[in-house]
Specification:
seven-stranded mixed sheet, about 25% helix, four-stranded antiparallel sheet, globular, alpha/beta, single chain, 13 strands, 9 helices
Length: about 350
Amino acid sequence: MMNRFGNLNTDSAWPTEDLEDVGGCPFCASTGRTVAYEDVEDWTFEAAPGRWTYWDCTQCGSLYLDPRPTEQSIWSAYDAYYTHNQTSKGGGLQRLKRRLLNECWSHWLKTEIRPRLGLPRILAPLLTPLRPTIPPPFELEVLAELPKGELLDVGCGSGVTLRLAALLGWRATGLELDPAAVHAARADGLDVIQGSYRKLEEHPGRWDYIICSHVLEHVHHPLDLLELIDSALTSSGVAIISCPNSQSYVRKRFGSSWRGLEAPRHLAIPSLDVLVDRITSRGFSVTEIPPIGSTTIKGSREILQSRRRRHVQADQSLQQLQEATHPPTGHSNPDLIQLVCRKSPTGTAH
């Protein structure tokens, strides 16, 4: 697939006129920083040219890109992005996989997600070994425990989570800027508002629940997004937020090959501490949900290259890398941040 640069040669440069300097950390505004990684390429999707520099904030521990693409030009980096064409349709094998996922998640979450295989409840323990491989999405686990209401998925892509929420009985709406992803979602009969997260300004106090799944790291002004999520929730609303963790133990293992970077689409990645602090300061109580079976490990650079080479030696290296990234005993910095944020008069973090 071609982008506006005419090819997918990541060795070419991002146009200078489409770059902007950041200077300070997007999460704490501190100018204290050290270089984390230089010459980072888009090895994940090979959809964007350029070599990029990430900085570690010495104040809050967040990680950010500087210089970075402007808000007007960043969308060129999404021309081959995976959210464009994920739909519920597909071939026979894809439909079978979807039924297996729905079967597993229905049993594990004690709910009904269709279409499924229809496995009798007595045989459900046979599915248990699959849980580390295909765990239910964090957002789905949280929704299964909450009373139904009005739900918004910010940055919904082509609507994967929206479809699941609808199956669970939610009155679900999506918000998505990318027109290709909006088209795919609407083709599946989903209700999607087209526009950036600033569309939230038009809906004060509307939603009982807002999902912000792996969106925060993509926006130029993440604190503005948090403010607008706050304003668009009801007085007792809940925000479900997830993103990579800048202090991840997996990042420490893989360095510049960490899947959480995804240059230049991941503009700023917070530390767990600063994100919780910024959310509680807005009057939320925050519950951290440790990720189980969900990390960026499967997308690290070495593993992607191993799969592309399809070589026996590479497969052995893949296994060694996976074993090397098991969470350290008692570690406090998960690879992914997963937060349930409830509006509260005290805003006490838990």
